Amino acid sequence: MASSRIGLWLIGARGGVASTVVTGLVALRQRLIPPIGLTTELPDFKNLDMPDWSDFVVGGHEIRNVRLFDEAMDLATRSRAIDVELLRRVEPDLNAIDRRIRPGTLLGVGPTIAGLASDGIGVPRNETPREAVARIQKDLREFAAAENLEHTIVVNVASTEPPVADAAGLPTEWEPFQRLLDKSPCPLPASSLYAVAALDLGCSYVNFTPSLGSTPAAFDELARARRSRHMGCDGKTGETLMKSVLAPMFAHRHLEVMSWVGHNIFGNLDGRVLDDPANKRAKVASKDHLLGEILGYRPQTHVSIEHIASLGDWKTAWDHIHFRGFLGTPMVLQFIWQGCDSLLAAPLVLDLARLTDAARRRGETGPMTFLAGFFKSPRGVAEQGFVRQFEMLETWLGNPSKPNPGERN
Amino acid sequence: MASSRIGLWLIGARGGVASTVVTGLVALRQRLIPPIGLTTELPDFKNLDMPDWSDFVVGGHEIRNVRLFDEAMDLATRSRAIDVELLRRVEPDLNAIDRRIRPGTLLGVGPTIAGLASDGIGVPRNETPREAVARIQKDLREFAAAENLEHTIVVNVASTEPPVADAAGLPTEWEPFQRLLDKSPCPLPASSLYAVAALDLGCSYVNFTPSLGSTPAAFDELARARRSRHMGCDGKTGETLMKSVLAPMFAHRHLEVMSWVGHNIFGNLDGRVLDDPANKRAKVASKDHLLGEILGYRPQTHVSIEHIASLGDWKTAWDHIHFRGFLGTPMVLQFIWQGCDSLLAAPLVLDLARLTDAARRRGETGPMTFLAGFFKSPRGVAEQGFVRQFEMLETWLGNPSKPNPGERN
Amino acid sequence: MASSRIGLWLIGARGGVASTVVTGLVALRQRLIPPIGLTTELPDFKNLDMPDWSDFVVGGHEIRNVRLFDEAMDLATRSRAIDVELLRRVEPDLNAIDRRIRPGTLLGVGPTIAGLASDGIGVPRNETPREAVARIQKDLREFAAAENLEHTIVVNVASTEPPVADAAGLPTEWEPFQRLLDKSPCPLPASSLYAVAALDLGCSYVNFTPSLGSTPAAFDELARARRSRHMGCDGKTGETLMKSVLAPMFAHRHLEVMSWVGHNIFGNLDGRVLDDPANKRAKVASKDHLLGEILGYRPQTHVSIEHIASLGDWKTAWDHIHFRGFLGTPMVLQFIWQGCDSLLAAPLVLDLARLTDAARRRGETGPMTFLAGFFKSPRGVAEQGFVRQFEMLETWLGNPSKPNPGERN
Amino acid sequence: MASSRIGLWLIGARGGVASTVVTGLVALRQRLIPPIGLTTELPDFKNLDMPDWSDFVVGGHEIRNVRLFDEAMDLATRSRAIDVELLRRVEPDLNAIDRRIRPGTLLGVGPTIAGLASDGIGVPRNETPREAVARIQKDLREFAAAENLEHTIVVNVASTEPPVADAAGLPTEWEPFQRLLDKSPCPLPASSLYAVAALDLGCSYVNFTPSLGSTPAAFDELARARRSRHMGCDGKTGETLMKSVLAPMFAHRHLEVMSWVGHNIFGNLDGRVLDDPANKRAKVASKDHLLGEILGYRPQTHVSIEHIASLGDWKTAWDHIHFRGFLGTPMVLQFIWQGCDSLLAAPLVLDLARLTDAARRRGETGPMTFLAGFFKSPRGVAEQGFVRQFEMLETWLGNPSKPNPGERN
Question: Is the CB of A383 less than 8 angstroms away from the CB of B373?
Answer without folding.
Answer: no
